[in-house]
Structures are given as C-alpha cells and as structure tokens.
Fold:
Amino acid sequence: MAVREIVAWVMVVVFGVAGAFCLASILGAGLAAAAPEFAIGAAVFAVTAVIALEIALAIFFPKQSATPPDERERLIVARAGHWAGLALLVGVLPALGHYAVHGDGNIMFNVIVLSLFVSGVVEYGSQIMFFRR
Structure:
C-alpha cells in the first residue's frame, strides 16, 4: 500500500469520526442553535490530526513523504479534490440560500461545518477508491 493511500485511510477515519461527533453535537443542541463547543472542538481536532499525521509521515517515511507525487498520484489527487469540491458545494449553496431567505446564521454555520467534514471524507474516500483501481 502506498504512503498516500495510507494517509487517505487515516484521514477518512479522522474526518469520519470528527464529523460524526460534530453531527451528534449539532443535532443534540438543535440545528438552529448556536454552534456547540464540541463542533468547534471537532474542527480543531481534525486540523491537529492532519498536522500530527504529516509529522508522523516525515518521521516514519522520510523518503516517500519527501518525494513529489507521480503522474498517476497527481491525477488521483486532482480528481478526488474535484469530487470533494462538489460535495462541499452541495452543502454550502443550500446553507447560503437558507441564510439569504431566512437570515439564520446558526443554521448556515452548522451546515457549512458539517459540509467540510463530508467533503474531507469524500476527498480521501475517493482517493482510496482511485488508488484501488
């Protein structure tokens, strides 16, 4: 298994777990409620996990982490980024539309935060799918 595929697996787990806890926190407080502290904590956890993963890669796989991606990997990352962008767009546009009509920033914020987690899962999940092809 390539290092970039290992990273994708770890990131799917990180974004999936953080997103699930964020979703549970938001639904527990109510979608229209102000952003729960745990939702913001989940985002901070995801960013911290990404940084820790990059440091671990540099320590355990110094040669592979320093090499630039080859042509196949660049295409995979670009295609997965495209799908992730579409997934983010599917969440952000309705949230912005809801805010434009109703003026409720809490719902907009909560939906956009959840869309970010979904987008991360879609990006790294599609990378795994494309690496396995």
In short: The CA atoms of residues 90 and 115 lie 8 Å apart.
